[in-house]
Amino acid sequence: MIIRFNSVSGFPVVRFVNICLRGSTLVAKFSLLFVLAYFLEPLDVALYGLVVATIAYSLYALGFDFYAYSTRELLGNPRNQWAKLLRDQAVFFGLVYCCILPLLLLVFAFGLLPWFLAPWFVLLVVLEHLGQELNRMLVAMSRQLLAGVVLFLRSGVWAFGVALMFWYSENFRSLEVVFLSWAIGAFLACMLGICSLRSLSRKCLKEKINWRWIGCGVKVAIPLLLATLAIRAVFTIDRYWIESIAGVEVLAAYVLYAGIANAVMAFLDAGVFVFLYPRIVSAYKKNNLAEFKHSMSALLKQTVTVTLLLCLSAAMLIHPVLGWLQNEIYYQYINLLYALLAAIFVFSIGMIPHYGIYAMSKDKYIVASHLLALFTFLVAVAGLRVVTPVYAVPLALCISFVFMGGGKLLAYLYLKKKWRGSRAG
Fold first, then answer.
1. Alpha helical stretches, state H, 248-362
2. How does DSSP classify residue 8?
3. Membrane-spanning residues where (predicted)?
4. Where would I find the H helices in 169-210?
């Protein structure tokens, strides 16, 4: 007898458990951020934030945004061919590692980060990339629950461990302990993700590596990579710019509040996006306009509702937390949190037309909107830093995300009208 856990009496068990896992991951990240802010000096908190942001940006250079191509390929091919596609993708990543990893050391050569962090940086960026790609594969394979477990190991369990160690003894209160725990958690997540792929049929692995398929993926991925690097540059430059404009103490507050704002997006991704975007892609590939509209409508309603609730909750709950931290620096710049929550709300709404465009494989519109966002961000910060140095970056984020979301919405409406016309014809 096979027991299915997708639902019990109509209750979406998988989604509920996945949200609980992501919720636990967010609690762990919150705990870690607040514990670091409580026990470490603002300089260490700021350095941790720079490392996290730089690793996050480097992941996209390593991944080359190839997943955007491979995910659509997985969803468009029979399951007995998936192992071959994943193997060819792994070969491509191996080649990218050889080219990109040495270039990433320029971060240290240019003095953006101190050299003593280089070994941790290389180890963590590789493990994080592998874990991220495994998460994406599991989501594309509709194994969201296992993807949630992998993510919890990668981002949650070790963070809880660090928080407990910091609380238990001052001997553990160092960034080295944080990075070691992070590496262990990411390694275990990778092992679980790799083991989960053993259930795939391996008969197709007898076929030779499809270099043409890889080449086609690179052609598709390059413009998407430009788009991703552009938008992710906004989420990386912001920290370095805050440090140069307002100083290390303001950066420490910014790191704390940016972590809270990004957690909103992370929860939205686990509770809404990972369940709906495969349906949207599948509906478009099947030319099923009714299902496409239904899924996009669900995406709109759930994104607005969840994002609004999370942003309001974060804005209210931060006050008792700041009372516990008892650090004037964080309370003095609390308006940074409100501005960042506004920015992440606008960004989240912009993801609705983004997934519609992605499903239609019209990636050039995504590229254009992301490049527009980066340009707008740079111009806005340059202008606002004279008026309000502390809040120039978060306000510029709001402005750039409005332009980006507006561009995607116009493109989505145009493409949807064009699709309707082709069906009618």
1. 248-268, 274-285, 289-325, 328-332, 335-359
2. B
3. 20-40, 46-69, 90-110, 116-134, 146-167, 179-201, 213-235, 255-277, 298-318, 330-353, 365-384, 390-415
4. 175-196
How far apart (Å, rounded) are the C-alpha atoms in residues 180 and 203? 38
> Residues in the chain, how many?
425
* Tokens (6 digits) for 353: 């037309």
The Cα–Cα gap between 112 and 252 comes to 16
* Tokens representing residue 296 in the block: 């996009």
Tens-digit pLDDT profile for residues 136-152: 888 778 787 888 889 88
The answer to whether 405 and 349 have CB atoms below 8 angstroms apart is yes
Q: What's the pTM value of the predicted model, to 2 decimals?
A: 0.73
3 state SS of 11: strand
Domain ranges of the chain: 13-424
Query: Each residue of 73-92: b (16+ CB within 10 Å) or e?
Result: bbeeeeeebbbbbbbbbeeb
- Per-residue pLDDT of 91-136, as tens digits, reads 999 999 999 999 999 999 988 889 999 999 999 999 999 999 998 8
Q: Are 294 and 339 in contact (CB under 8 A)?
A: no
* Close Cβ partners of 367 (under 8 Å, ≥ 6 residues apart): 223, 224, 226, 227, 230
